[in-house]
Amino acid sequence: MSHHVRVGLIGCGNIGASFAGLLAERRADVRGTTGIDLELTRIAVKNLGKPRPGIDPALLTDDTDSVVLADDIDVIVELIGGIDPVKDLLLEALKSGKPVVTANKELIAAHGEELSNAAAEAGVDLFFETAVVAGVPVLRSLRESLIGESISKITGIINGTSNFMLTRMADEGLDYDAVLQRAQELGLAEPDPTADVSGADVASKLAILASLAFKRLVRADDIEREGITEVKAEDFDIAARFGYTIKLLAVAEVFRDAETGQSEIGAQVFPALVGLTHPLAAVRDSFNAVSLSCDAAGELLFHGPGAGQLPSSSAVLGDLIAAADHLRRDTHRRVPFGQRAVLRDPDRLVHSFYLRLRIVDVPGTLSEVSGVLGAHGVSIRTITQQGRGDDASVVFITHPASEGSLRAAIAEFSALSSVHGDVSLMRIVE
Amino acid sequence: MSHHVRVGLIGCGNIGASFAGLLAERRADVRGTTGIDLELTRIAVKNLGKPRPGIDPALLTDDTDSVVLADDIDVIVELIGGIDPVKDLLLEALKSGKPVVTANKELIAAHGEELSNAAAEAGVDLFFETAVVAGVPVLRSLRESLIGESISKITGIINGTSNFMLTRMADEGLDYDAVLQRAQELGLAEPDPTADVSGADVASKLAILASLAFKRLVRADDIEREGITEVKAEDFDIAARFGYTIKLLAVAEVFRDAETGQSEIGAQVFPALVGLTHPLAAVRDSFNAVSLSCDAAGELLFHGPGAGQLPSSSAVLGDLIAAADHLRRDTHRRVPFGQRAVLRDPDRLVHSFYLRLRIVDVPGTLSEVSGVLGAHGVSIRTITQQGRGDDASVVFITHPASEGSLRAAIAEFSALSSVHGDVSLMRIVE
């Protein structure tokens, strides 16, 4: 005897249609393995007239209430994205006792706590594995296997588009505009690539990861972010000479005060020089990886395709099976969002830095510039001058220093007649 | 209000003592996060007189029944290992309605089905995350997140001792005996290293991984295995020249017959030449990694410390929290062991091969040897002669061929006057 579960799908775009196909393909096997029979009962779409090959037209409706509020739907799968009107729809679904599976990182990063409270009050599940690195089961691991762990740091490459672009820049010496055009031609970047290249997408995902890993609620808005738009082809050349490549990283860390027992969280998204022997340096093209520093389990790395229709559909299916299984057993698992995190002032975060400045190539310039760094307590590991005359620039690699010191020093550079143009500044992760 | 769960521990050796310490350290946090209060209530040990720093002597008993059958114990954690008497103890515990958490790979690989049936009949959990790659949550991911996936292949480095030894051989040119001695001095290899270097430990872990990934029961005995004892320092040199390193791999693959719907599983443990750009080539020292080829989610890689007291304790704690949570909700999750797997005849498995033979350095030898390979349908990618005269050997790298063809060809080599001594044979994984 199998347990029959009626699934209502909201949204039937690329991922929705792919998920519907995967569910049809895997239904019999899932029934055999788990005893759960997942029936796709209804699909809410905006435009009923659009041709949808492979989708039974009898399932379609343009009335979302007939999915969200219907008595003959047991579980909701949301795959449209965005916050309005999705947030209200999902709150209604949860309040009516329906578990929700969503891929909506933007929504969870901004309103995950409200949704998770609504789920807990109704005694049903809220799952969102797909929101972060698609089919790589890192969120479930954080919610379950690692729930007893003390996790001190997350370091991740969690945006496939930007990682593809940086990999191509590193390998082929292409500049940003050329590689963006290539990514767009391949369908790996959107016509408007802002969310991917600005770090906004990464910040949403990092907010979710940090909230689950540290059990303190971090919102996307809490996260200081820099994208990859200012990374130059020449930075790759220089980085390679020092034994680094450049990656867009998501980094979150807990700072625990042993005396007060209080903790602060530092969370940032930035392009960084990553040592070539660092495990994340080997994450190429549109692959993603998340590294977790666990006090007892050690350094765990999860690696896989971070996006794509099939990997996303796989994660949705995994969540749906868990939600259906919990429904059958009349149980649920609360999202372990904790209290609001206290964010550490970014000026107090410490990194080694890579600094590239255009300088006037006259005697005394290096000493003047390094004097400013020294005056702010920034100690220098190497100084290298690149080019001569009008084309001269200088690259500093610093010892660990606070971001505040660096920013203060850079602010003073603008007053120096020997420095002109913008300063390229990147963190270094060994 | 927290839910109080009384934990009975069997075994207080290195991992048992470490787990007891971790539980004490994490207890308050786990209670805060999950609402579950885990109390270590009793510990069964063989020798009551042995000093156990950090362990409350009042918890110790040498009467295992007072843990396994006691009314004041809710969950059993088993950390002694071996099959006798542990199997019977755990069956008793499960039958009396107590969930079991164990790190015992040997027991699960041999008797997992019987234990899992006993757990299912009693409606309680059987968890054993620690049995495979310690704190890396790959088993739970297979049991939960990936339960709806169709997984076609597992490739893993799942023994830290042998991976440490092979890494040192590759980096430092040490031979097997020297590196084994080093590993023993560092406490990374046992005084009797047989289980680690023979592939027996890997076979147990692969049996568990394959059973959960393919939902067909695979036993350690089903798995053809070769250890690392025959890997020579010179093989690393030659491998490196062709762009490979050498790793002890666990490989299991499903072969589905589209016409009959039947499937066969090929499962092997062997030292292999692994392409230097393969993700597993970068798994160094005592780290472990498991790569899963998923039809929808794509290639997923889990990487982390595969052993050690703290990583193992972390995995036990994760399992214990799940078992306690399920107990609180009066639910459990069945281990998805399926029917007994049909194993594919190893002779039918296909690989590219690396072959090194000592030959008599006279004209015609290469043609004679390659003629034997050709007669068995083994096509050759490269032939390289190493050394001259008495010290001559020849290295073949073949195109993919069945193991049966290779074995048949090698059997014929012994009849050739031009080949003397043993043949080094390794599979190649690109």
Topology, pairings included?
The structure is a homodimer of 430-residue chains.
Chain A: E1 3-10, H1 14-34, E2 36-44, E3 60-61, H2 65-68, E4 75-78, H3 86-95, E5 100-102, H4 105-122, E6 126-127, H5 138-143, E7 151-157, H6 160-172, H7 176-185, H8 194-197, H9 200-214, E8 224-225, H10 233-241, E9 244-256, E10 263-275, E11 287-294, E12 298-305, H11 309-328, E13 350-359, H12 365-375, E14 380-386, E15 393-398, E16 401-402, H13 403-413, E17 419-429
Parallel strand pairs in A: 1-2, 1-4, 2-3, 4-5, 5-6, 8-10, 10-17
Antiparallel strand pairs in A: 7-9, 7-11, 9-10, 11-12, 13-15, 13-16, 13-17, 14-15
Q: Which short descriptors sum up this protein?
A:
homodimer; 430 residues; alpha/beta; eleven-stranded mixed sheet; six-stranded parallel sheet; 13 helices; elongated
What's the gist of this structure?
The structure is a homodimer of 430-residue chains. Chain A is built from 13 helices and 17 strands.
